[in-house]
Amino acid sequence: MDGFDPGAGIIVLAATNRPEILDPALLRAGRFDRQVLVDRPDRKGRADILRVHMAKVQVAPELDVAAIAGLTPGFTGADLANLVNEAALVATRRGGEATTLDDFTQAFERIVAGLEKKSRVLSPHEREIVAYHEMGHALVAMHLPGTDPVRKVSIIPRGIAGLGYTLQSPTEDRFLISQSELMSRMAALLGGRAAEDLIFADVSTGASDDLQRATDIARNMVVRYGMTTELGQVVYEPETGSFLVGQMPVWRPKNYGDGTAEAIDGAVKALVDQAFRTARDTLEQHRTLLETSAKELLARETLGPDELRPIAQRLKRGPTHPQLIVDGTALEDAALAARLGE
Ligand code: ZN
Fold first, then answer.
1. How big is the chain by its Cα radius of gyration, in Å?
2. Which helix (H) or strand (E) segment is 280 a member of?
3. Are 40 and 158 in contact (CB under 8 A)?
4. What is the reported pLDDT for 102?
5. Which residues of 109-142 are buried (b: 16+ CB within 10 A; e: fewer)?
6. Are 185 and 140 in contact (CB under 8 A)?
7. Which domains does the chain have, with CATH numbers?
8. What CA–CA distance (Å, rounded) separates 315 from 184?
9. What is the whole-number distance in angstroms between the Cα of residue 241 and the centre of ligand 1?
10. CB 188 within 8 A of CB 147
């Protein structure tokens, strides 16, 4: 950003589809220091966009815009414009005077056949799995101490790999992270898979990135931060100090024996297992809340701070809080909610 007069009122904007691979130096204060996420629209956003495009064609007066919005999770604004166009074509072809819901359904089916190749439209069962997966991350993160606050949970598909996402933003830049905070972070990362395991008694490939990140944390705890008793306060794999780490494979000679390598692998696995148990126990304890909030997420597609706040409050209270034991029995989340008039 050098060369601009700070008083000249020039704002520099840039766009990217891969914010995760930007050099952090670009994002420092005084450079590109604000990030605006332009997302695929949620259900309400899609209804608003549809209305704009529908104003240009003749639509039947009884047409239910909300129903069409409900049909089209994952559609971008351009996809929706295309849908309105196609539906109008279908109506013209059959000689109709106005575009009806049937025309939209036909147009939708034609477009989806094309989109499915790009794997952007999920089946209802897949959406349900994604909803539980993302709520799993969110509930574990909200429940455990030392995790970043959850700002947004969404099941709107983004890009190729991400089926949904849970946005946690750090409250402050962190230089020191404690061992227990790292454990909480790992548990939150594994919360998605734990929810799938708990609800569907089956797991999906949707968690591969989560597992990679949790394993990286566990490995660093063992080989860099000396956080396991078995391996002690020894650094086995020093930081390379290059900003290209992660983009280029760096080959380094191993400076420990095979026995140590085995111990490291064992310690990493033990840490990941422990974090997974924490995540699963947390979700099992709050199963009703997981179910109600996943259903809410399915219906709304995005939960923002306003929807997440009451969920976080119910989590902190917990089902076994002393004052909630009535006649010697702890109330379940649902009964508790009813009693408290929520
Ligand atoms: Zn996940």
1. 24
2. helix 258-285
3. yes
4. 86
5. eebbeebeeeebbbeeebbbbbbbbbbbbbbbbb
6. no
7. 43-113 (1.10.8.60), 124-338 (1.20.58.760)
8. 15
9. 29
10. yes
For the segment 185-198, what is each residue's pLDDT rounded down to a tens digit?
Answer: 899 999 999 999 99
Q: For tokens 């909300």, what's the residue?
A: 66
Q: Average of pLDDT values for 160-176?
A: 56
CB 135 within 8 A of CB 195: yes
**Catalytic residue (one of 128, 134, 196, 301):** 134
- Ligand 1 geometric centre to CA of 210 (Å): 5
Estimate to the nearest angstrom the gap between the alpha carbon of 60 and the chain centroid. Answer: 37
Quick check: is 237 catalytic? no
Whether the CB-CB separation of 67 and 60 falls below 8 Å is answered with no
Q: How far is the CA of 3 from the centre of ligand 1 (A)?
A: 42
Please state, in angstroms and rounded to a whole number, the distance separating the CA atoms of residues 295 and 281: 21
